[in-house]
TrEMBL record:
Controls the rotational direction of flagella during chemotaxis. The keyword Transmembrane applies. The chain crosses the membrane at residues 24-47. Coiled coil: none annotated. It comes from Pseudomonas cuatrocienegasensis. Keywords: Cell inner membrane, Cell membrane, Cell projection, Chemotaxis, Cilium, Flagellar rotation, Flagellum, Membrane, Transmembrane, Transmembrane helix. It is found in: Cell inner membrane; Cell membrane. PANTHER family: FLAGELLAR PROTEIN FLIL. It comes from the Bacteria. This is Flagellar protein FliL.
Amino acid sequence: MAKKSAPQDPAAAAEGKPAGKMKLIILIVVGLLLAIGISVGATWFFLNKSAPEAEVPEAVESQEPVKQTAIYEELVPAFVVNFNHKGRARYMQVSVALMARDQAALDALKVHMPVLRNRLVMLFSSQDFESLITPVGKEMLRQQATASVQELAQKETGKLAVEQVLFTNLVLQ
């Protein structure tokens, strides 16, 4: 009982190997084409899907008030005040900018600029030098200045014309 081996043609055996490689190459090309097709389809789907959503926020934005851009008014010249700290003369120079959102309200407040500058000079000169050395003391002074200016704006113009008082330069000596 001998095994019979089928005679194989060497030409047929040689064709089997390239046919396997050819199938592999075809599968890779088909896979790449499929991936590209899915990518293009998904991109088209999501771009078309987001187009109607772009119209919806416009309707929502019209209902909500839009925050206006900030307007800055620099108070020139800078404020210079003096202190008497432990028998020694001390000085502070502060450059101030007002931040507002409404130009008309800011223009209405400019009429009262002498009163505003007077309030700020009195506020700055009434401070304790020791507390102004610290960052917390400087921030507290800025908040007090903001409250003082907002109070004046409310009293004189009927609106809170100034959102913040900003110190653009502060020098202690």
